Amino acid sequence: MKKLFAIFLVVFALGACSSSDDGNNNSNSQITPPAWIQGTWKVDPQDSGAFKFTNNDFCQISSFQHYCWKSAIETANSTSPSEQYKLSVVQEISDSRYLIIMDSGVQNIRLEFQKISDNKILWVNSPYNVDELRELAIYTKQ
Description:
By secondary structure, the chain is an alpha+beta fold.
């Protein structure tokens, strides 16, 4: 699991670009995950790696880091010397899909989750979401 979060951090560092026209979009600097995804999600209950969604934040948790995006966005936007570097949030929300894109104008961070059931989600753009490793991209609600 530590390797998963190491890869996750690399993906964030490199960024990912995308655009989409479907779903309910909202764009601002607020994070508003849908109710169905709110909670803590882990691949393995014994592992320290997790995603945590609240009504106004999205966090990544590992044994060496607890990183929440609400605070990062607020800090970046209050200290940014230029509009170019301020973070905006674009979300697409449906009954079974949550896409969040955090965009600074120079970098896009894209995370997409699909609801499998009330207690399982798939991290769609996980580096592990390939046939032979898909179980490492499926998270269970704790």
